Write the structure tokens for this entry.
Amino acid sequence: MSFDPVQAAEHLADRVPYATDAPKGGWPATCPARELARSPAAAAVGHLAARSGLGLFHTEWRRLLALPEDWVPAHDPSLAEPPSWGGGVLPERKYQAFRHDQALGGYHPGMRAKWTAHELCHGLVGFAWRPDASPLFLATAGRIAELVPVVLWYFLDEAHLRRCPRHSHGGALYRSHCPACEAIAAPRLDELFAEQLLEEGRLFVERELAGVRETLRTGVPVPHVHGGLDLCSDGVAYAAAHGPRLHSEAFHRYIEGFAVEGGGLSTSLEALTARALEVLDGIAQGDEVVPLAPTRAHGEARWALQDLAWRLLTVWHDTDGDAADTLSDLVDGLAEACALTARDEVDATQVRTRAAEAFQAARAGYEALFEDYAVPEPADVFALGHDLLGVGGARSEGQILEGLVDAMPGTITLLQPDVDALISAFVEQDRPVRVPLGRRFASWIAGDAPPEVGALARFEAALTHLPPADPLVVGLGGPKPGDPVRLAEGVVVLREDVDVVELARSVEFGDVIRAGDRIVDVDGQPVPERPSALVLVRDPVGEVILLDVEAGVGDQLLGLWDGGPLEVAWGEWEALVQAGVLRPVRWGV
């Protein structure tokens, strides 16, 4: 390891003015530019990942497949079936959605922006595997594969990163979340703090590698615990969850047909460690990092073919007879195209064209297979959540509809009978942003739908995705009369031209319907206008409090984001304070 904190701090400082510069060909797929331009280290990861064609899939667009029964660890049967929507959120199960052998990372709208570079970093480091891998080998490989992404998260990404005044010079927030830090994250010069952080990062790497060496010497896992971090424990848990899959015939076929040694695959722990340190030095100091593929196009083709092949092999594992033979042939066709991605003498355009043709042939073959055999739906198998090859059909409209029914059932009811067409249009234009599904849809549908639909969508999205109570208001109390105030964190104020609560009730009981571009009652009469203002906030135990306030009060509340006076009657003031809606600009000491 050549990682030197002083040199790294200087290098990353030099990169501050250029962090927003996109790599040639643009940032990696499904990666918002702002999330990779947030710090010099994140930008470095983005540039390295783009060279190798890495990217992310969108977790809400991607349909996870059920795991074969014999791949499910006995101690965690919950991994068998993919998670389902709850509260408008599609959760991820740590050891089901994530695989070290999957080069593409995940983009989850509910997670913070740091995850983009972290996931790409995993792809850059890759994984280690060999046919006779023991559980300790797999656990240690998982531990080593986590090293640089974790160092990036807690140390490299924090160097020369602007945070809010409350968290400035404090480093990573661990499990805490600060919307203000997320909003203002950007590169800034901060030499002294950066050097201190990077020295801590160097020590973390040295101690972690010492633990790995001692593990291999003694044959017993030797942890290095830093705060709440224990990569040794994480590696053991990963091996336990994935061991049956990694030793399956399907995985052997996957390695034989799609893995490239030095192009994501390491066949020894020593090689994986060397690759990890190479990536570390490349991010921190600008040292050379060997790309995983000859060109970006070669890489994008490889990751797409690998991704689809593994899904077909997962189905193949639980299939027999003629159906299994057909699936095997489809996988072989993908493998032939994948072999070209490791050959730098093959033109990038040719690689991409051949990969797209193989992809389309596999889809056509699988659709034909589905007509005759009980295999998963083609729309589910091919909903990869990314479109690296530009062949379309990679976003699961069915899964998005399920999420919207969970998040805003009344709105979806009101949009009948045009829901399917509207979902298709929404999914096509949807983009990766850290905004919950319900809120994204409410913002989109308000453009063309009747105003009552937009109002109901905003109301249901606010109810479903309402943040928790402001912890400072819970702990320190609300303002006193006459104090300058601002809205507490997590409060939502809605100003609508209809009584949206009554509208929601009427939709639930079938008292209103959509008639073309109008919303009417069962007698054909339009929904009456009633300017209203609603305030939504959670109490300390998580229950939703809904206040119906005067329209003028709602307008005042909407103007309190930066603090100011609030002129309301005493009873309304008391109700707002008691509900936790208001927060003083500052608390008295």
